[in-house]
Amino acid sequence: VQLMESGGGSVQAGGSLRLSCVASGYTYTGYCMAWFRQTPGKKREGVATIRSDGTTNYADSVKGRFTISQDSWKTVTLQMNSLRPEDTGTYYCAAGSPQSSDRLQTRDYSYWGQGTQVTVSS
Description:
This protein is mainly β. It has strands at 2-6, 9-12, 17-24, 32-38, 45-50, 56-58, 66-72, 75-80, 89-96, 109-112, 116-121. The chain has no helices and eleven strands. The chain is globular, with a radius of gyration of 13 Å. The chain starts with a strand and ends with a strand.
């Protein structure tokens, strides 16, 4: 299983970025897909998740600003608007079969991408 992220970059506060993740190497269409982010010295945190039935969930810090969507079973995107400096970090795409209630726990996901950097300047 391979997950490949793209779309990271640098933007000023208030700007937007769109991240994409393409999955390959498997045919199971029932995985839950998610985006996580991490900054040096901090734990990786869940940002947004989408189940195969389209149900989504977001971290409180990004609700109303970020939107996760799935174009197909192997492509998931994260539209990030009204970006803030605290959104800076390495963003990772993940796939798995979550057991937690919010589906935003790292332990829920078995497959991870290499990450893409997002930098928001003030």
